[in-house]
Amino acid sequence: MSATEAAPSPLLGELLLTDEDNARSADRARVHSARNHSKRWRLLWLLLGPGILAMLGENDGPSMIAYASDGAQYGLGLFVVLIPLLFAMAFVCQEMSMRVGAVTHRGYGELVLQRYGRTWGWFGAGDLCLTNLVTLIAEFVAIRVGLAYFHLGPGVAVALGLALVLFTLSGGRYWRWERTVLGLAVFNGLFLLAAILVKPDLSTIASSLSSTPFPHGSFNTLLLLLAATVGATVTPWMIFFQQSASADKGMTPADISHGRYDTAIGAVLAAVFGLGALIAGAALLSHGGSGIQGFAGAGFPQALDRVAGGAAGTVFALGLIEAGAVAILTISASTAYAAGECVGVSHSFNTSLRSAALFYTANVGVALIAAAVILIPGAPLLSIALNANVLATVLLPVSLVFLVMLANDRGLMGKWVNGRSTNAIGVLVVGLVSACGAAYGIDSFLRAVHVIGS
Amino acid sequence: MTEQELIDQAHAAGAPPEALAEDQSAQEMIMHLERDQLVAETFRPVARAQLQGRATAALWALRVFVVLVSLMVVYAFVEQLH
């Protein structure tokens, strides 16, 4: 709780009001004003944020590289259908986390810890920290790849990433943090621009919709693609982030319909921009795209430069920088929320550094550790980038199961519990994610120990 | 309780004028936040859920499954590096 909390007042009895309450109340005052004056567009504008940030944050460096790599190796085919389907799946999961946050006003980490015990709470936080650290390393790799196109080194990537984290934290308000990151996230649209610049054959895209062949290659490669693509759309950090951010923003059950719009807009934008990366990558298919395999996108901007012109290469490189930067901000934030929630101390952007030292330290600290890793000479950065999404897929089922349990908890959610269709889709998603992760993990392990041929 | 009732109650309790002004602004702020949104309220832990034995066993099975698959992925990743 804030160190600057107000003294109990004669009017408010035992209530203690903090700076965090004041800041959140100011934001809510604008929401109430817009709602009372029936300013629909202003209300939507005020309530947009966590959903779009979770979805576009997940259109991160490794994800966009994975989509482009899918396109470069296999063409459009299956992925034109798979990417929108997976974002529809992500919408269901993220809508649940938004709804739980808006109804309970608490983050995912603290609810799991308090409702189901410390063991499960800390397990969840441990999973999150592991996947976040690996993913953050991959984000710095993506920025590094983008900057390399402009002949800038890893030191600049580290400085840029950390400077952004510090800048966005300097405002001391959730609203300012959210709007700054949203402003950056808009540039995820660069991938759509890259797709336009490669001048794709529209008839090829249309034919992909009528026939969706499975990509060729080994069974393990297909599993890797599926696991990485699933991991590129739903991850543990998104669940932690959107629930905590919805609570931090001050959303209430009255805002749930707008929260759904926010999440749906985010899902549509992320799917469109993801398809943009896929289409841009597919331009390399007939130009030795298979040579990009395993390269973790390090050569994409240069390859696009050669195939589709300098503008396409430049836009793709800038897109990678943006994707990495936005993800660093949102993933660091999810780590900070989880740390504060599990330890039981202040965890809000509306709190000062002094009052929420752990929250801010975790936010900067996890980015700092990831940045330090990419400066280690000889570190297997490209392998880490490739496997970041797979690890997220493998660790996701536990987070999803607890999310479904929370969203069905009538004691917490009251009339806002999941409907049957949401539960059916939720169970389906848990099954799909578990199957993808397990199939890839077991197949890779058996190959590694030479039980089956590679 | 209405705002006026709160102020009347404070008058009766002998609250000084400064406190009244402060309280009025505080009351406005609370009007924009649900009571359970206040930081003081969110720090009160929610009650522990009572999970049935089968649910607990299923959660542990899922946890063991996830840890095993994670170890396999990490092992395969390390092998790839070599």
List descriptors.
heterodimer, A: mainly alpha, 20 helices, disordered N terminus, B: mainly alpha, 72% helix, 0% strand
Oligomer: heterodimer
Distance between the termini of chain B: 70 Å
What structural class should be given to the helix and strand makeup of chain B? mainly alpha
Residue ranges of chain B: pLDDT <50 for 5 or more in a row?
Answer: 1-7, 9-29
Order of helices and strands of chain B: HHHH
Gyration radius of chain A (Cα, Å) is 22 Å
Shape of chain A: globular
Overall geometry of chain B comes to elongated
Q: How many individual helices of chain A?
A: 20
Radius of gyration of chain B: 27 Å
Give average pLDDT of chain A, whole number: 86
Count of DSSP E strands of chain B? 0
Largest interface: A-B, 60 and 47 residues
Helix content of chain A: over 70%
Number of helices of chain B: 4
Cα distance spanning the termini of chain A: 55 Å
Largest sheet of chain B: none
The computed structural class of chain A is mainly alpha
What does this protein look like?
The complex is a heterodimer of chains A (454) and B (82). By secondary structure, chain A is an all-alpha fold. Helix content of chain A is 74%, strand content 0%. In chain A, helix 9 (174-185) packs antiparallel against helix 16 (310-343), helix 12 packs across helix 20 and helix 18 packs antiparallel against helix 20 (420-448). The radius of gyration of chain A is 22 Å and the shape is globular. In chain A, 61% of the residues are buried. Chain B is 72% helix and 0% strand. Chain B has helices at residues 3-12, 17-32, 39-42, 53-81. In chain B, helix 1 packs antiparallel against helix 2. Mean pLDDT of chain B is 72; it is low at 1-7 and 9-29. At the A-B interface, helix 1, helix 6, helix 7, helix 18 and helix 20 of A face helix 1, helix 2, helix 3 and helix 4 of B.
